[in-house]
Amino acid sequence: MNNQSFDIPFIIDKIILIESLNGIHKSTAEDLYKNILLSQFDDINPIYESIESKDDLINLLIKIDSCITQNKFHPLIHIEAHGLDSELGLSLNSSESITWEELKPYLRRINISCCNNLVLCISACNSINIVKELVTAFYDNDRYESPFFGFVSPIGRVTWEELYMQYSVFYKSLSKEKNFNMAVTEMNKGFTSKFSYYSCYQAFLIIIKKFANTFIKDRVLNIQKDFSVLDECCEMYNYTL
Question: % helix / strand / coil in the chain, to the nearest 5?
């Protein structure tokens, strides 16, 4: 879906950069924090967290949720790690993997605590696949609660140099214009690697469109063949009334 199609108000009063890297990759994350986040968002005091393991990440997300409950802030969480080749999650510095499915309940809890205002930025290859996880979850449960308000990530593979340069452009634009669509558009200019921004509203509309184009048409055909199926009910049909 076109990044220009959504311009939804949001609040960010805390930025938390979480990295699980080593060597030059770790230095790139540190540079993004020191050179960009601290200078562009000095009024909200960005936080840098370096973690090693799966337990570290989960415990940190639980801690963030607890802090939101107590202090009522609206975070942008930026995660720097390697993406899994399977596209199903992240590889951490401990050599452990954590899948999007495993991350979802903790992110969802944070998003609920901040009233659907969590923005998630990922610096990892193949991380756009989390959108598929979100869409699939809505199919399984029409009352599903989203794990984020908005999500920014690279499409496919990307070098660490590009991650640093493009996220630098992104944060400078976001700080100045306060507009995600504009920031993502700017970070895509002049670079080979491309990034995308999705909101939970976009994901939901993708589902509704597919539902209307596929399931409703199939249901009409089935009703034409057998009127007894009218007695069957699917909660998703409530959205079409």
Answer: 55, 15, 30
- Local confidence band at 23 (pLDDT 50, 70, 90 cut-offs): confident
Per-residue 3-state assignment (H helix, E strand, C coil) for 19-46: ECCCHHHHHHHHHHHHHHHHHHCHHHCC
Q: Cα separations (Å) of 202 from 102, 132, 149, 167?
A: 23, 12, 10, 22
Interatomic CA distance for residues 59 and 23, integer angstroms: 24
Distance CA 239, CA 200 (A): 17
Domain range summary for the chain, segments of one domain joined by +: 9-200
Is 3.40.50.2000 the CATH classification of the domain at 9-200? no
DSSP β-bridge partners for residue 97: 91
Tokens of 175: 């700080």
Question: Does the pLDDT value for residue 188 go beyond 80?
Answer: yes
- Determine the 3-state secondary structure of 3 from DSSP: helix
Cα angle 214, 220, 226 (rounded to 5 degrees) comes to 130
| Nearest alpha-carbon partner for 133 in 66, 206, 60 | 206
